[in-house]
Q: What sequence folds into this?
């Protein structure tokens, strides 16, 4: 029997993994009827049974045809399947049975290059396609993620009421924003993840100083993070760092953090940020350092071999050489530099791909719901509203903060360096800061070398034009 119009779903979702299930419950809870489809029928049935009172807003379907037929036209399909080929396969299966006005949304962690290609393919096939970045993990998907959309504006407008309703709210403002055409949303999400890697790495670095340099216990470290979470560094990542440092392992009775192997996983979005930064020639050294550190965490055997040969670090850090307040201020400085690079990368991409990215809105959409949400993002949103393309380090509020914290970052990096404590992301931040306030750099030497071996020419400080040196080498 054909379903009557009122029984039809307003939206459909494919892929009932963790993110898909939670997003579905969020959509249902916000009063939208949603049809769901999953490759494994048992998953769909169990999900529907477990949905409790929300089940009345969820239509479980067991074939793609039934799924499509249970959604009101023009249809909206959300894909929450693993990034890569599965997305392409799902799009082509849907395209065979959907109408030209139907809209397909890829809400997974797609590579923005794939999203650009899919947008083009959809365009030439006369279909509508959106790529949206969804951040906030499991909890965010269920109770309010941060959503970064990319694709045709009219497609976004068709679903913005749903996306805004299910998104996190900063005070009352929904954290769901259209970023621009084709891959803009997924690019912004990728940079979010790159920054996520850098934020996490810098926190891990100061944690390392407290643990290994200052000999602090996990519980003492937890208390420090809790205190920092009440100040300038207030953020989700500092908050959870306090929680994970304070937790006890039921099996051993030890702090959980102490029994976790120091080998970190990754799905690759941080790496994509570093790759795209290199493609665009945008400096993202703090993110790159974090990606490298994450890669190196995997080289456990080599690191152990190195320790056996060279001895463990830190070798001679004076317990009192650095204060906790200095660590906090170093982290503030590192964070400002990292975000200055992240927003710089976004500005460069915006120009390159003709997106006209809404810079202040990006900072605003990250204020709640997502993994990198923090109080500082509100100040960044204000600075970017004043000047969207200026390096964030040069915004009045951040100039002051950097002047106040620069020496602490320097002390932390110097002390760590002297005692062999690795702080790659904080060091990268300091180097970038130092380069960015050096009016006369050493690139004159590079130009001289290039001219010497390749006759590439150089500019003079005292005369216009291209010049060559008196090398007499050819
Ligand atoms: C988010 C996160 C999420 C990401 C995980 C794990 O915004 O909710 O960025 O999308 O998948 O944080 O990422 P890695 O496995 O690469 O660490």
A:
């Amino acid at each position: 029997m054909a379903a009557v119009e009122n029984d039809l779903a307003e939206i459909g979702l494919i892929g009932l993994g963790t993110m898909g299930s939670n997003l579905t419950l969020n959509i249902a809870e916000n009063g939208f009827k949603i049809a769901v489809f999953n490759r494994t029928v048992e998953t769909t049935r169990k999900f529907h049974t477990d949905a409790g009172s929300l089940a009345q807003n969820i239509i479980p379907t067991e074939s793609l045809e039934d799924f499509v037929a249970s959604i009101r036209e023009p249809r909206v399909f959300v894909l929450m399947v693993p990034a890569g080929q599965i997305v392409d396969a799902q799009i082509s299966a849907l395209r065979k049975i959907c109408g030209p006005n139907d809209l397909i949304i890829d809400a997974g962690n797609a590579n923005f290059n794939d999203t650009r290609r899919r947008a083009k393919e959809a365009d030439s096939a006369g279909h509508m396609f959106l790529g949206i970045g969804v951040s906030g993990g499991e909890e965010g998907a269920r109770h309010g993620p941060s959503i970064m959309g990319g694709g045709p504006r009219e497609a976004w407008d068709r679903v913005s009421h749903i996306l805004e309703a299910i998104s996190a709210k900063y005070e009352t403002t929904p954290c769901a924003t259209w970023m621009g055409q084709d891959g803009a949303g997924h690019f912004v999400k990728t940079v979010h993840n790159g920054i996520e890697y850098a934020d996490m790495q810098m926190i891990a670095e100061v944690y390392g100083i407290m643990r290994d340099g200052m000999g602090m216990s996990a519980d003492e470290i937890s208390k420090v993070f809790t205190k920092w979470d009440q100040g300038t560094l207030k953020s989700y990542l500092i908050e959870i760092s306090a929680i994970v440092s304070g937790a006890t392992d039921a099996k051993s009775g030890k702090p959980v953090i102490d029994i976790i192997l120091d080998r970190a996983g990754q799905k690759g979005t941080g790496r994509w940020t570093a790759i795209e930064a290199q493609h665009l020639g945008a400096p993202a050294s703090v993110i790159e350092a974090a990606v490298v550190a994450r890669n190196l965490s995997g080289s456990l055997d080599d690191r152990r071999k190195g320790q056996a040969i060279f001895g463990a670090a830190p070798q001679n850090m004076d317990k009192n050489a650095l204060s906790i307040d200095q660590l906090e201020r170093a982290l503030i400085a590192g964070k400002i530099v990292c975000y200055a690079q992240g927003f710089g990368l976004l500005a460069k991409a915006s120009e390159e791909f003709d997106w006209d990215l809404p810079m202040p809105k990006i900072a605003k959409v990250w204020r709640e719901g997502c993994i990198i949400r923090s109080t500082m993002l509100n100040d960044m949103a204000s600075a970017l509203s004043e000047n969207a393309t200026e390096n964030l380090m040069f915004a009045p509020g951040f100039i002051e903060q950097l002047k106040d914290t620069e020496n602490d970052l320097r002390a932390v990096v110097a002390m760590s360096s002297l005692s062999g404590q690795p702080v790659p992301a904080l060091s990268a931040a300091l180097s970038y800061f130092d380069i960015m306030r050096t009016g006369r750099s050493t690139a004159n030497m590079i130009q001289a070398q290039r001219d010497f071996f390749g006759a590439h020419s150089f500019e003079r400080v005292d005369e216009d034009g291209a010049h060559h040196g008196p090398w007499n080498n050819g």
